[in-house]
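Wed. Picked up where I left off yesterday with nicotinamidase. The coffee machine is broken again, so keeping this brief.
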Amino acid sequence: MRRNSHPKAVNALLIVDVQYDFIDGSLALKNCPSQHQGEQVIPMINKLLKDIHFDVVVYTQDWHTHDHISFFDNLHLRAHLLAKDSKQAHELNVFDTAIFLLDDPRPLRVEQILWPAHCIQHTHGAELHKDLNIIKPTKTRKIINLLKGYDSNIDSYSAFWDNMKIRETELHSKLKAHNVSQVFIVGIATDVCVYFTALHALENGYKTYLIQDACRGVDETNINLRLDELKGRHCSVIQTADVKDLI
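Structure written out below (tokens, as returned):
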């Protein structure tokens, strides 16, 4: 008699950008409209790592060059590349969106939020927070460390793609190599890097869970809009207490 058998899900925890600059540095969430305390994600994530065996754990980091396009302080480097329908350099402020026309190598129209300088390569602000548990690989658990946003002309919110979807990171190929079928996403910021990572995880066919109480974001209104959009795309927005029953 044939028994119905379902392959066991292979689970990955994606820990997005739990870095000093988003917690108490130049782009700290507590200074953003949400006034979220970014460090509050750390005990939630550490508990998940302690209590639940994920087959793959991914740590991502923004890893920007000092001349990165996303930094307001670098606007003068590309002011001559602003599109005619963009606000011009003298009109732009921090957190405004600039529109650049680049050749990279083909012509690109890049809409870029201008952030305070943050997560510059090899600086303290770019490091993962010391209180975050950095676990080691074992025979049954793989670890992936992913740096993103290191192209000076194109930002990369998502752990899967740059913002223009020109260059794919190695994450999808590595997850597939480990036969991952479900991803659980935590970290910073809910409405930016976490959102885009979840969006692309869905596009890549993963069963995708965003663990809401283990994320913090920039703007409450935008967070709610992003979560509603993800739910509409069949992302499950859950709490840490729900995870054990899904593994």
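Quick read: The chain has a mean pLDDT of 95.
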